[in-house]
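Follow-up to my post from last week.
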Amino acid sequence: MTSPLRLGILGSGKGSNFQVLVEAARSKSCYYEPVMVLSDVADAGILKLAEQFKIPAHFLAPGPFKTKLTEAIEQEMVTYLQAAQVDFVALAGFMRVVKEPLLKAFPGRILNIHPSLLPQFPGLAAWKQACEAHVAETGCTVHLVDEGIDTGKILGQSRVPVFPEDTPEMVHARIQVAEHELYPRIVNEFARTISKSA
Ligand code: GRF
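User reply:
Got it. Predicted complex:
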């Protein structure tokens, strides 16, 4: 096997998907290795986890907008990722839209996990949207990131049931169990594919 591809991770939250990505990479021979974490939230759990795992991590103050970064801040992220020789990027609960500096620096090489069966329920709190729509099934999707919101090419999905008595929190917890199996598997498959085509 060639040396693992270097993965950069962007996250704003507790980091449970980041955790399983690291655990999978460290427990078996994988085609990727998490090497850097960047967060737009100073006290995000993902930064604390990165410290525990001894993976370099940085907080970047997100600037004035709620749902995106300024171009300068995104460019700073690119600089960090390139300095760490990152080959590809995984968003793991990153709550801002990714725009040109990142998309241009890693074309076709940014993955995201979204808590619904896309194209159903893009955007925020997809588990709540699923409850409100009274669907019998939802799930999670790993997809490539493009300039749209949760619109990029789908790489893999897992399904979970939704029961009539479920609260949105119960649905999200069930989706997260599925995410933790799906994300490391798809990230690894993606890394294997790009290592082979290099
Ligand atoms: C996940 O549900 C993911 O689908 C969404 O944000 C959540 C992040 O959770 N994009 P965590 O920080 O990985 O625990």
